[in-house]
Structures are given as structure tokens and as C-alpha cells.
Amino acid sequence: MGKGMIDTRANGAWLRTVVSALMLAAVGGVPVPLLTASAAQAQDDNPFAARVTVDGAVITQFEVQQRALFLRALRLPGDPEAEALRALIEDRLGAQAAKAAGITVAAEDVVAGMTEFAARANLSPEEFTTALADEGVAPETFRDFVTAGLLWRAVVRAKFPIAPTVSASQVDRAIAGTVSQPLIRILMSELFLPLQPGDDAAAILDEARKIKAEIENGGTFSAAAQQYSAAPTGQNGGRLDWMDLTNLPGPVAEKLIKLAPGRVSEPFVLPNAVALFQLNDLSEEQGPAPAAVQVDYAEYLLAPGQDVAAVRAQVDRCGDLNLVARGQGAERLTLTKAMTSALPQDVGIELAKLDVNEASTALRRGEWTVFLMLCQRQALAEAPPPPEADPAAPEAATPEPAPAEDDGLPEGMIAPVRAAVQDQLGNKRLEQLAAGYMEELRSEARIEIK
């Protein structure tokens, strides 16, 4: 595999990290109504026509199309067009708030932000921009995205200059809630429409929306999956077995947990497919939910025409793949250890269906079929240990340890967990304040969708 940014096997986690950092994860999820197909078609005739106005500030059809392409290139969850409309409206509201407060962003800060964003994918800004261009995204779209994020962050810092305080009792309650939180299991169905290089992604998205509408207007998800789904599960109506919610990638789990039983998700754009999911049921099991789930998995690339059954016959566990791939080049077999929250969405969804030493061949990478095998799944009940001290560094005086508080956690974990929880609570409170401020701006604005 090359190091292109669209390879979500390498870049699934940093996208969420950077988007969260730039936008403070502080914008609400208020749905934005979409144009009807006929109205959208009329707008397509003039890409620079106004699609939305926000207190007179125009958002053009071209901007919406570009932001949707940008989100699609990043493989972020949700319907790219709906997310693009929502984000651009909030960009305008944030820019207006910045102007009213006399806040600007220096050109060098924008360049630094673009450099940081690209560096998360081990790319220079120029390489990142080139990769975006291959997806049809103009350089200005990337720059505008970064600029809007930096402006909003500056507005929030000016609006709420004092960091929210988190008391010891709030940390205690949060830890107690984490330790006692029940394990949630999910029963769902899936439908995958293939998306290959060169395909018209917008057309496939439209097809997914039409299928969703058919289901909601009297059809059944099972019948639609049998008719349209390219996944092996389509034969049984897309139905999956019960699985732990924590085994799914974070963005997918967050969307599904908000659905009512029987409802169908908005389309998810994955690296090689557009997916719909139906939530069938939820259950809570006794016992604490893990703080995180870590998986070890193997990806072996099957050459065109390679006998899948022959590979399965030779492989009982992940280590056997080393023998199968011997002499075929290092790029054919990849072994990865990662938290489920950081997995590429397509990989995470497939791994969630597997038990240890089971394999799937549902994914593709260009002309290659991926033999995806789960080597290990480990539920973690504690934060990762702090980094080891540099032995070359001068030895510092060791302070007297403070008496440990009883948090119901294993000895030796209390201090790092308390510090991490305190930071999380403070950030979450700031996000809530920022989200409330955004909703205030939205409620006071005159927003017209053409």
C-alpha cells in the first residue's frame, strides 16, 4: 500500500482526532433538511447559485458539493451532503461571531493548521492537497475547512476564557459510573452497496437514500438486503448475530446507539462501499463495560484468482498466515494492534462480527480481496500505562506519595485514571458550552435553504 491519505487502514484514527481538535467537537448534531431531488438537480445547473443563506451570507452549491467530497474523501460517517450543509452553516455562524468579536486568524496559523492536519497522515500539505485533488476536492476547500475550525476555536476561547473546573466528587462519580456501567449488546442488520475506484459515489449515495426511503415507506430491510446488498449476509436479509457495542468503531457505534429499534441509519461511506444499518434490538448485560477494547488482526491480500478455500484450509490461527504469505512480499500480509475506536470503519465493522481466529473475505482493496482474521480481542479496564522515564535524564527527587483514594480501581491505576477522567470531564464541559453557544447563534440567525 502507498501512503496516500485515502488508505483508511493507516489513517482512520487521526481524522477523528484532528477534526475534534480543530472543531473542538463542539457543534451540535441538529439535522439539516435536504433539497428534494428535483430542486437539487436545478441547482446543479449553476454550481455558484446560492444553496443556503445565513443572515445574508451565501453558501453556494459548489461549496456544498466540495465539502461533501472532502468529507467523503476522509471517510467520515454519515451522509456527506447532510453533514456538509450542517457544517457549512455552522462555519458561517462561527465566522460571523468571530467578526463581531474582532477575531481573526493569521495566515501563518492557517498554514500551521493545514500542516498539522496533513502530518497526521504522514503527508506534507502539498501531498495532502494532491491526494484531495484526486478525489475532486479543490485546495481552497481544505484551507476553508481549517480556517473555519481555527476561527471557531478562537471564538470559544474568547467566550469561555476560564477553563471549566472539575471537582474531586465529579471525578469520583464519573469513575464509579464507568466501573459500574453495564455492557450494551446490539442486534443489527447490514446492507452494502459496492463502491469501486472510478464509480460515481454520489450516484451510489443516492441509490442508498432511495433504498432507505423504500424501507421507511412500507418495505423491509430484509427484502432490500436480499435484493441489493453485495455483502455475504445479504442472503439472509443482512441480519447479524448479537455483538458488543464496544467492538464496533466509535463513529458507527455512536450513530447506531441513537437509533430507535427498527430504524435505518443514514448511509455510511466506507472505503469500498456505501452501507446502511438497521437497529433491531439492544440489550444490557450484567457486569461492567470495558473502558476500551483492543484487537490484534491480520490482513492478507488475496491475488485475483487465488483460491480462498485453499487459504482457509491452511489457516487455523493468525500465525499460519506467515507460512501462506512466505515469499510474496511484505505488503501482502499486515499485522495490526489497535483500539477499536481507532479502526478504519470497514475493518472495524467486519472485525466486530468475528470471534478469535475467524476470518472474513468481505473487504476489497482495489483488485485484491482482503483475508481479514481476528487474532485477539482484549477488553481493557484501565488506562494505558504512562511512558517509561528516559534513563539518560537526570534523576529527579521522588516526592512522598499522597494517600490513595479508594475509587474501586486496581492499586497503581488511581492517579493516572483520575487525571485522565478530570481532563475528559473538563473538555466535555467546554464542548457543551461551545455547543450551547452554537445553538444560540443558530436560533438567532436567519437561515434560508434554497
Describe this structure in words.
The protein is of the alpha+beta class. It folds into three domains: 8-164 and 433-449, Triger factor/SurA peptide-binding fold; 182-288, Chitinase A, domain 3 (Roll), CATH 3.10.50; 292-380, Roll (Chitinase A, domain 3). The chain has 15 helices and twelve strands. Strands 7, 8, 9, 10 and 11 form a five-stranded antiparallel β-sheet that branches. The two termini are 43 Å apart. Residues 1-43 and 382-414 have low confidence and may be disordered.
Protein traits:
450 residues, alpha+beta, Triger factor/SurA peptide-binding fold, Chitinase A, domain 3, five-stranded antiparallel sheet, four-stranded antiparallel sheet, globular, disordered N terminus
Unreliable spans are 1-43, 382-414
Determine the mean pLDDT. 77
Shape: globular
- Structure summary, number of beta strands: 12
What is the overall number of helices?
Answer: 15
CATH class of the largest domain: Mainly Alpha
